[in-house]
Specification:
The complex is a heterodimer of chains A (90) and B (364). With 90 residues, chain A is an alpha+beta fold. Chain A has helices spanning 38-43, 51-61, 67-83, and strands at residues 7-9, 14-17, 23-27, 30-33, 87-89. In chain A, strand 3 (23-27) and strand 4 (30-33) form a beta hairpin. Classes of the chains: A alpha+beta (90), B alpha/beta (364). The interface between A and B is medium-sized, with 19 and 24 residues.
């Protein structure tokens, strides 16, 4: 995954609010509970934003921070989801 | 602390145009006249969502045998559930698929019986294979999740690679390769379905190789045949722990097969609140937790991983639903399972003919 990659939730995967218990990612074979900035990242994986744009928006939303670190952690998170075929990259 | 259920398996009908020799429906099926109407299902979906359920799997029989399937999909999605249709594809035309998607369908799971037409149709007892492939192309052109499910057994494992290649060609997101589980109709046909040890070993390495090759493109889930396992499967994630099954007439069960267990009284969701049935009914409490466990489960380090295995399998093979699952190598009844696999691997079991699943008949 590079800064120019455009990650998108795969078909059949969607974010959902789980009552009062935060956000979950509903996937064909079950449920992934999301913690930390997971929901904020995945909400932006709509096929229109590049990783670089997502990182920029996250830095704004969370009030700055180390952009290089946000990028590497976001990329690693999305890469793990890509291996599970929850995220596809265009 | 009572666990929270994650998924509702909604057996909306037992009617089906296929007659698969390993059907997971019970031998005693519900006729059409006993099926619940859509509004009763909608209420159950809402009660399930209140209980914490996130997924509804619409299954059968063939759910598309119901004229009101669109309403059921709509009700599932309206209850904020991830809505999955498990189908043979028969009864789902292109127009109907679009109506189902319009009603909120998230995902479709299509079954195939083989990669080749003749053996596929033999297992299904119906000329269905070509129609399934036709539907698959239409589904793939839509924006919903798409899983291909292939049940595997001794008669088709030689074509496992062809099944994987077929799934890849159809462009599915996920392929589920599930070995037959021996309940109901499958138990009737066990002698012809059970794979050999050699087939199992070959299939495991084949799946591993293709998984690596297809990583990030197509997910492959593999359900091994538990008769060859050393320890039992955590059947349904444990009795009354994560899954609720509701049959066509509203009877609430912890799994597909549990109605075979004698002396358990399963409640009906039309008569009682689903929450009460899940949390308090005697049948759901019967094998929940550890208090019911015999040795060797009771003192076993794995008791919170496999929950003693499958209660239905324990009953079907030993006559005692509270016995340790006999596929466990620690079970005093393991000899029953070894006897079956020994017979299969000696090559002595091809003689019997298929027992095909029949369709439920309305009592007059």
């Amino acid at each position: 995954m590079t800064a120019a990659s455009v990650p998108k939730l795969a078909r059949g995967c969607r974010l959902s609010e789980d009552g009062g218990e935060g956000w979950v990612l509903l996937i064909p074979e079950g449920v992934m509970r999301l913690s930390g900035p997971g929901p904020q990242i995945l909400r932006r994986c709509d096929g229109s934003r590049s990783l670089q744009q997502i990182v920029r928006e996250l830095a704004d939303e969370f009030g700055g921070g180390d952009a290089a670190r946000i990028e590497s952690e976001t990329a690693a998170f999305l890469e793990r989801l890509r291996e599970r075929r929850v995220i596809v990259v265009e | 602390m009572i666990p929270r259920p994650q998924a509702l398996i909604a057996e909306v009908t037992h009617r089906c145009p296929l007659h698969c020799v390993y059907c997971s429906n019970p031998l005693a099926m519900r006729p059409r006249g006993e099926e619940m109407l859509a509004d009763a299902w909608a209420r159950i979906f809402r009660e399930a969502a209140d209980l914490g359920v996130l997924h509804v799997h619409l299954t059968g029989g063939e759910p598309a045998a119901r004229a009101d399937l669109e309403e059921l999909v709509h009700a599932g999605r309206a209850a904020n559930l991830y809505t999955n249709l498990i189908t043979s594809g028969i009864g789902v035309s292109e127009d109907r698929l679009d109506r189902l998607i319009g009603a909120g369908l998230d995902h479709l799971q299509l079954s195939v019986q083989d990669a080749e037409e003749d053996p596929a149709n033999e297992i299904a007892g119906a000329r269905a294979h070509a129609r399934k492939l036709g539907l698959a192309e239409v589904v793939r052109a839509r924006q919903i999740g798409f899983t291909l499910n292939a049940v595997v057994h001794r008669q088709n494992l030689e074509r496992l690679e062809a099944i994987i290649v077929l799934a890849e060609r159809l462009g599915v997101d996920r392929l589920e390769i599930a070995n037959v589980q021996y309940y109901g109709w499958a138990l009737e046909n066990r002698e012809r379905l059970m794979p050999t040890r050699t087939q199992l070993a070959a299939s495991v390495s084949l799946v591993d190789a293709h998984r690596a090759r297809l990583k990030g493109r197509m997910r492959i889930d593999f359900v091994p045949p538990d008769y060859y396992a050393r320890y039992p499967k955590a059947c349904m994630g444990g009795w009354g722990r994560s899954l609720i099954l509701v049959d066509p007439c509203g009877q609430v069960l912890p799994c597909h097969a549990a109605a075979v267990i004698p002396k358990l009284s399963f409640e009906n969701a039309q008569a009682r609140p689903l929450r009460w049935i899940w949390e308090e009914s005697p049948a759901f409490q019967r094998f929940r937790g550890e208090d019911w466990m015999p040795e060797p489960c009771r003192s076993c380090d794995r008791r919170q991983e496999d929950f003693g295995g499958c209660r239905c399998q324990a009953f079907l093979l030993t006559g005692d639903a509270s016995a340790t699952d006999p596929v466990c190598s620690l079970s005093p009844h393991r000899g029953i399972v070894d006897g079956v696999t020994g017979r299969i691997n000696s090559g002595a079991c091809n003689g019997a003919s298929w027992v095909y699943r029949i369709d439920p008949v309305d009592r007059r």
